[in-house]
Amino acid sequence: MVDIAANLRDVRRRIAEAADRGGRDPAEITLVAVTKLFTVAHIQAAYELGVRHFGENRVHEAAEKIPIVNQWVEERALSPLTWHMVGHLQSRKAKDAIQLFDVIHSVDSLKLAERLDRVLPLFPAPLPPKVGGIEGGGGRKEGRKIMPILLEVNVSGEESKYGFALDRWAEDEEQRERFFAIVEEILALPQLEVRGLMTMAPIVADPEEARPCFRRLRHLRDALAERFPGEHWRHLSMGMTDDFEVAIEEGATIVRIGRAIFGERRET
Length: 268
Hints:
This protein has one domain (4-262): TIM Barrel, CATH 3.20.20. 38% of the residues lie in helices and 19% in strands. It contains 9 helices and 12 strands. The protein has helices at 4-21, 40-48, 59-75, 94-100, 110-119, 173-187, 211-227, 244-249, 259-262, and strands spanning 30-34, 53-56, 82-85, 103-107, 130-131, 134-135, 139-141, 144-154, 164-165, 192-198, 235-237, 254-257. The strands form 2 sheets. Strands 1, 2, 3, 4, 7, 8, 9, 10, 11 and 12 form a 10-stranded mixed sheet that branches. Strands 5-6 form a two-stranded antiparallel sheet. α7 (211-227) links the parallel β10 (192-198) and β11.
């Protein structure tokens, strides 16, 4: 296993330095350790080093690991974890995702939001854990279970990326208003609570090339906060191993980091 302790120290240092460059408090930024293709042992090692937020990309993989880790935590009466779904989520797997995750970053359609809202009442409503900078899911609102979500948007225009298509939102009124109309419908769903936005930046050689993408997401969040005041628009989930420092400088509140902590993945 790689030296996770040394890697985490380096990542935390880089987060703090990027926050300082952006005139921000590092405490505003939640580190989500993304454990796709990594083992339960990797997760336990990171937990013992103080990580409390973990992200998975695939429901079927998460279903193999999350119950084991949660049981390990509960048996030792340790502080709770918050599990983040950060990969593409199909509507047919919404029920499984609700059982596993506390926060869903990747709500990229009205259809998915409506599906989550329909199946959430099937589950009990425990009190939400409060860990770090974002409250976990499974909470209660007027006796109902709610799920914190982020809306995934594609502000880069890359066809390979998931998310609401918003590469021209600032100058294209039709694209912008179509999205705002969908947002209004999602905000009306009683079992969901929108907490902000998520995006995947293009894979580029120079992280500076991703800066315009992160900046567009921040400006979109600000426009949404103006259009829908009183809603939860705090969070910007953006930035991964190759570009998280630039993302923080541009306002990220959640960074999703895997390789910089756990090393290279062995794809299966």
